[in-house]
């Protein structure tokens, strides 16, 4: 699997070790999610490094993402944050509403979210999307 790694230099360095051990290839690294989206580098997913560090003592209800969101899931997530329905998201992305439903379920699972609103909240806190 090839991924784009996003975050501060220190956060990327911490995560780079874990990804290397897991056999995940880092195709490129970026300081921001916007830079990663604008890049013309092919990757299977974008991984956002946790900026809090290994043990900073902050209380976070959002644990680490076990599996990175795919670029398509990030597209769906951004449209969810805009308040679009599954049907509207499907129309914008040129996919079926069943496929959108599948992506929303996958996003919720990966973020540990109870529903689409919770997924958007968690994504905002992690810096995956912005409003």
Question: What characteristics describe this protein?
Answer:
131 residues, mainly alpha, globular
Topology at a glance:
Blueprint lengths: L1 E5 L2 H13 L3 E6 L2 H6 L6 E4 L22 H11 L4 H8 L3 H15 L4 H11 L5
Parallel strand pairs: 1-2, 1-3
Helix pairs in contact: 3-5, 3-6, 4-5, 5-6
Task: Characterise this structure.
The model is unreliable at 55-61 (pLDDT under 50). The longest helix has 15 residues, at 97-111. The two termini are 29 Å apart. This protein is mostly helical. It has six helices and three strands; from the N terminus they run βαβαβαααα. It has a three-stranded parallel β-sheet with strand order 2-1-3.
Major beta sheet summary:
3 strands, parallel
| Gross morphology | globular
How far the N terminus sits from the C terminus, by CA atoms, comes to 29 Å
As residue ranges, the low-confidence spans are 55-61
Number of helical segments?
Answer: 6
Overall SS class: mainly alpha
Let me know the number of strands. Answer: 3
Radius of gyration: 15 Å
Strand order of the largest sheet: 2-1-3
Q: What's the rounded overall pLDDT mean?
A: 83
Along the chain, the helix and strand elements come as EHEHEHHHH
Portion in strands: 5-15%
Helical amount = 40-55%
Summarize this, please?
The protein has helices spanning 9-21, 33-38, 71-81, 86-93, 97-111, 116-126, and strands spanning 2-6, 25-30, 45-48. The protein is 49% helix and 11% strand.
């Amino acid at each position: 699997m090839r991924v784009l790694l996003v975050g501060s230099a220190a956060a990327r360095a911490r995560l780079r070790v874990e990804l290397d051990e897991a056999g995940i290839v880092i195709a490129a690294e970026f300081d921001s999610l916007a830079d990663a989206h604008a890049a013309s580098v092919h990757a299977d997913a974008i991984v956002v490094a946790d900026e809090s560090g290994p043990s900073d003592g902050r209380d976070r209800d959002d644990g680490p993402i076990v599996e990175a969101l795919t670029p398509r899931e990030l597209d769906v997530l951004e449209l969810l944050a805009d308040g679009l329905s599954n049907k509207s998201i499907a129309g914008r992305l040129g996919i079926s509403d069943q496929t959108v439903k599948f992506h929303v379920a996958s996003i919720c699972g990966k973020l540990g979210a109870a529903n689409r609103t919770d997924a958007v909240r968690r994504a905002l806190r992690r810096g995956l999307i912005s409003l």
